[in-house]
Write a structure and sequence with these properties.
Distance between the termini: 17 Å
Radius of gyration: 15 Å
Order of helices and strands: HEEEHHEEEEEEHH
Number of helices: 5
Shape: globular
Strand content: 25-35%
Pfam family, one: DUF2314
Number of strands: 9
Protein name: DUF2314 domain-containing protein
Organism: Hymenobacter yonginensis
Number of domains: 1
InterPro entries: DUF2314
Structural class: alpha+beta
Length: 158
Amino acid sequence: MAAFLLNNCQSADNETGWDASKQMYFAKSDDPEMAEAMHKSRKTVNQFLTALSSGDTTTYNFGVKAAFPIPDGTNEHIWLTDVKASGDSIFGVIDNEPDFTTAVKFGQQVAIHKDSITDWNYTKAGKLIGGYSIRLMRNRMTKEEQAQFDEQLGLIIE
């Protein structure tokens, strides 16, 4: 599932929007709605951490998104899976082959500070919790793209 949600690249050069062939969403680096989604993710990260440590068997597919630098000075945002937390650190595994950054590689274990995440999500009883950038990307898709996205995602997004 995470591979479908994965990349979000902030760039001044690329066209914005969903690229179905790359399974990537391109956002301008100064996109105010994307900035708000990242702000909301950081503001609510403790909700994520509480769920992660709860032991609730109806919660699964925990992931966090982090920004990694690319040569043009912007960032590629990549989801981490197999997430664990210790104190203010979040540990996870890069869940796809990066398209632009050379800072990380698919399958690499990384650690980030909880305040540096750019999104978080998990599934609870088949529903997406969090995933603020995912929701924004989906809202910007055409109805046809949304239907395809929902089918491939297999989650309820309320």
